[in-house]
Every structure is written in C-alpha cells, then in structure tokens.
Amino acid sequence: MDRLVAAYRALRTAAPYELLGSLRAVLLRHYAIGEAELRLVDYAMSALRPVESGPDGGGTVSARTGPAGRAFGSQRPFVEPAGRADGGLLTVHLPVSVRGNTTGVLTVRVPRDRFSADVLAELGEIAEALGHELAVADRDTDLYLRAGRTERLTLAAEMQWQLLPGRSCSRPEFDLGGHLEPAYSIRGDNFDWATSAEHLTLSVINGMGEGIGAALLTNLAVNALRNARRAGLGLVEQAYLADQALYGQYRGAAHVAALLLRFELATGLVTVIDAGSPRVWLRRRGAVEMPAFEAQLPLGMFEDTEYRTEQFQVEPGDRLFFLSDGVYDAASPAGERYREKALARALSNSGLLPPAQVPRAVLGELAGYRGGPSPEDDAMVVCLDWRG
C-alpha cells in the first residue's frame, strides 16, 4: 500500500508535462521497473502513439492488434508470454482510462522475480491513476493532445473534438461510446452526455453546413443545451432555449438536427425529443429494429417552436445505436444506401464488442461499403448498452 501511495503522490505533485518521468522514478524505486512507455490513442482510434517519440513517429503501434492493442481493446492488462530473449523481464501492457473513457496504454517491463498477481493489480491501479492525471494535465499542457495526432486537425475538427465530453463512459447502469469520422476533419456532427445520481442525459447533434461554419453552429447548439441543462431545466426547456439561441443567431438560415434523451437510471424510462434527429436503432434479444419517434422541427429552423416529449422503456441487455445521416444515407459504388441492408448487418456483427469499440467498428465497415476512406458527409455513431 505504501508504494501505491507513493505513486499517487508522485503523479499528483508532478508538473503536467512530467507525469511519465515522475511515474518512472516511482516504478524503479518500488517495483524495480526500469522501462515504462505511455502510448495514447489517436483521434481515429486506429493507432497508439508514444508520448515520447521522434519526428518519424517511431514507436507507434496498432490500437486494434498486437499486445498493446489487445490491452486497449479489451481494457484489461495483457502480459506478453515470456521468451528466451526477454532478459528476465516480463512486458506488461496496462489500459489507461478515466471512468470508462479509453485513453491509451502504459507498457512496463517487470522483472520476473518481482512479478505477481498483487503487483499486476497495483500496476493496474497506477495506470488508472495516470489516466485521471492525464485528464487534468490536458488543461495545462498540449503534450498529450499532440501525442494523439497522426496528422494535423482542421480548425473545425479542433473545435468539435474539444467540445466532446469524451469518447466513452461507464457506470454500473450503462456503458456508452461514440466516435466521429473523418476524425481529422469532422465538421457538424457531435454528441454530448452528462450523468447524475438519477439521470443520464444524452444529446446527439447533426449540424448543417461545411467547415468552420458547421462547427460554430454545433458549438452554439451544444453549449445552449448545456447552459439550460446546468440550470436544472428539463428537456423541453433545453430544446426551446437552444432553438431560440440558434434562431437568434442565424434567423433560420442554419439549423441543427438533434435527438435529446434523458434516462432514469433506476427504472430505464427514457424521455425523448426528436428534433429532426439522427436515427436510432435498438438491438433487443438479438433483433435489430428502428423505434419510431414523433418527428419535430430541427433546432433553430423557426422562431418560438414548441417541443413535446415522449417516452419509451429500455430493458437490461438493450443496445442502442445513434447514427447521423453520414452513416444512414451513405451509398455504395453501386448506389445502394447503407441503411437498406448493410447497416443492420453491421450493427449485428458488432454485438460482441464493448460500446467503446462499436462506433469505430461500424465506421470501419462503412468505409469498406463506400469503397473508400473519405466520406462525403460527417459520420457519427454512438452506442449505449443498458444494464439497468
């Protein structure tokens, strides 16, 4: 326990840009670990990039395959099998995350004679503590944000990624994950969530337009919804105030399609406002269907729009998918829409993946369906598993 306390103290007191150096000193002193490397997932969630790397990006590995990718994908520690050339050291890959928001992988080389199940458990706790400190450090340094980029983001994409609450979230009642493509040039799609002791509030946004204009529109919509939510207002008031903010700025020339949901954590009762929203699909007991909600006007289209709520019930074991038009209406080279056949198949095929991995898997299948990696429209997938 003393060495865990030492690790926590070192991480808490380190300068934001010196987290890894301070952690290495503790690992060497208390665990005889002389090698430790931190890799962070890139915006496309396809690569794990080292925080300390040369200009050629040396040390980058796949986020989907290999030992580090296995730890990242499963969110469980992975110990590489010992080999003759390992010099008496075991290579251990530890997932780094914050309350379910997957961040990266910490790789350490542990002397075999110092390794045990207790040591592995302690190293897992240290990796989790590192994840929390990384989230705090991002407020004061660009080091870790820069490490997660395989290419430069457009200004619109910079605005959109900074707006997100995270890419995944986990609580006893649910697991939640979302992803945006094209990751380095996303424009108008976004999602937001917030939890309390009683509720999960989720919004998925599909803003019209291109480039910075679309990003500004979405930023205004998301922050108007947050402003109303943080004032303690209900879904109807949130929709109304966001609608007025958008109409006041754009006078109906630009609007936002949105789906607003509030889940009661104790009962699974969901209150919904469908404001010209992204599509919802439900997988329940192996069958995939599309719930029908009352279609209402997008936010900002007209002045003084009145919104109404409706309700439906989620059950333990349900999986919900929220999809923007860039997914639903994507076309194959032959002109067949993704929604016609391939979408239901993709959603079923992802059934064994955790929600944090589902959006990337669906968008990967979508890229193959389109016949190329560059979409004509933004594509957003959010996946929610309800445990109740």
UniProtKB/TrEMBL annotation:
Residues 171-386 form the PPM-type phosphatase domain. GO terms for molecular function: protein serine/threonine phosphatase activity. Its EC number is 3.1.3.16. InterPro entries: Bact_Sigma-Reg, PPM-type-like_dom_sf, PPM-type_phosphatase-like_dom. It is an enzyme of class 3 (hydrolase). It comes from the Bacteria. Gene3D superfamilies: PPM-type phosphatase domain. Keywords: Hydrolase. This is PP2C family protein-serine/threonine phosphatase. The lineage of its organism: Bacteria, Bacillati, Actinomycetota, Actinomycetes, Kitasatosporales.
